[in-house]
């Protein structure tokens, strides 16, 4: 591979005469396989954003779908078409799509966890609120949830158009608490 006669050598001198090149037969198949696996991961992730009801209708995770549409600047009228548009978008670059989604989710969840540690916010049952003032940020529903589910649901809401203003205020409160510490 390091030979000066190898056309595939990345350090090949411009004055060297290439006599042969290395052909990697499986490289293209492996790259395609990686893309297929990344696409499968995207489809599994996006499929979790809808659930089929018994009456053949669907229930959508509206907050997460809205947030993803905002992240990838995808526009559609209904949640079915929004989800379909996200799937089409994910098919174009599945690996980059999943990287962006994972980073997008982790940042906000980490901020909320940090705010909980700094006593900026708290959960009172399923109500997400500020700890030091009587201001409710968001009611997260009535079903029983674990702490990480509450954090995830609050993070999803922050990333929607409706939660954008509250997210900005939350981040300002978090920064103030960091500076105090």
Question: How is this fold's topology laid out?
Answer:
Layout: H1 27-47, E1 50-52, E2 58-60, H2 62-71, H3 79-92, H4 94-117, E3 121-124, E4 127-130, E5 136-139, H5 147-158, H6 164-180
Antiparallel strand pairs: 1-2, 3-4, 4-5
Helix pairs in contact: 1-3, 1-4, 2-3, 3-4, 4-5
Give a concise summary.
Helix content is 54%, strand content 10%. It has helices at residues 27-47, 62-71, 79-92, 94-117, 147-158, 164-180, and strands at residues 50-52, 58-60, 121-124, 127-130, 136-139. The model has no long low-confidence stretch (mean pLDDT 88).
Structural key phrases:
single chain; mainly alpha; 181 residues; 54% helix; 3-stranded antiparallel β-sheet
How is this structure best described in words?
Helix 1 packs antiparallel against helix 3 and helix 4 crosses helix 5. The protein has six helices and five strands; from the N terminus they run H-E-E-H-H-H-E-E-E-H-H. The strands form two sheets. A three-stranded antiparallel beta sheet has the order 3-4-5. A two-stranded antiparallel sheet has the order 1-2. The chain is elongated, with a radius of gyration of 24 Å. With 181 residues, the chain is mainly alpha-helical. 54% of the residues lie in helices and 10% in strands. The mean pLDDT is 88. The protein has helices at residues 27-47, 62-71, 79-92, 94-117, 147-158, 164-180; strands at residues 50-52, 58-60, 121-124, 127-130, 136-139. The chain starts with 26 loop residues before the first helix and ends with a helix.
């Amino acid at each position: 591979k390091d030979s000066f006669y190898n056309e595939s050598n990345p350090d090949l001198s411009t004055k060297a005469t290439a006599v042969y090149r290395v052909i990697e037969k499986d490289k293209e198949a492996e790259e395609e396989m990686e893309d297929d696996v990344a696409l499968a991961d995207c489809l599994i992730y996006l499929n979790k954003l809808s659930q089929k009801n018994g009456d053949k209708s669907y229930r959508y995770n509206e907050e997460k779908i809205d947030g993803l549409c905002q992240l990838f600047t995808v526009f559609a009228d209904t949640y079915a078409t929004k989800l379909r548009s996200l799937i089409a978008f994910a098919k174009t670059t599945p690996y980059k799509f999943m990287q962006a989604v994972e980073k997008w989710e982790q940042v906000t969840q980490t901020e909320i966890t940090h705010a909980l540690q700094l006593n900026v916010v708290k959960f009172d049952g399923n109500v997400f609120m500020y700890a030091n003032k009587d201001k409710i940020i968001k009611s997260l529903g009535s079903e029983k949830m674990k702490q990480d589910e509450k954090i995830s649901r609050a993070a999803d809401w922050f990333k929607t158009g409706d939660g954008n203003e509250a997210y900005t205020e939350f981040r300002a409160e978090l920064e103030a608490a960091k500076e105090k510490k």
